[in-house]
Please model this.
Amino acid sequence: MYPKEFKELVERGLQDNFYVGTGNPNAKILLVGKEAAKGADYRLEKGAFVDNAKTWKKHFEENTTPSYSFMPEINILRKSGNPWRAYQTLQSIIYDNPIDYKDRENCMKIDFLENIFTTEMSDVTEVKKLLKQEQFALKLRLDKRINTFLNTDFIKQFPIVLLVCGKYISNEPEHHIENIFNVKFFTTESKYPPFDTYYNENRTKLVIHSPQLSGAVYNHVLERMGEIIRKFMLKNEMIS
Model:
């Protein structure tokens, strides 16, 4: 039910007090956001989303799975600035008929977690409220998360990785993206806002690095991103 690599990551999350993520751990797509806007205390000294790893551990013990689809209390899909709306739209472009994906935007149901595992580059919330000294601590915490969390077997095994976290990670000058995921830079898509694509040598792994998918994210950007992912999955026989 759960990959061995995921169980190992959850155990590390319990030990080191870090946020693991949400969604289907057996999915082909990993989406790494910037940070959660709310949902946990943002103060660094109080730790990350401590209940997240505990919740996964409970599912392991009870041999259960969380719900990957639900009806939100409010129609967040119609709030253009909410990143989950963009995630839902992106999933529809990838897995449904890309021409008709807009029909799904009128649906209140959220089900992208069935096909995408999501986590955050920063496991500290409400970053804008941090004090100056806490901002420095956040930078150190981000560096540690890049060098440890992203380098785990579970994270690195995804064939498709979407780093939709802007400047929270970069390929220069340390070549973090290329080294962590064993890929090489391919091209920068000029759609505004632009995003970068990376592939491994035999084109069985795709990494996309883009700004955060919130605020004024235009559908043409999601359409192009979804088209690239869909073609990659068709070529590698992940979908038909």
Observations:
- DSSP finds eight helices and seven strands in the chain.
- The first helix runs from residue 4 to 16.
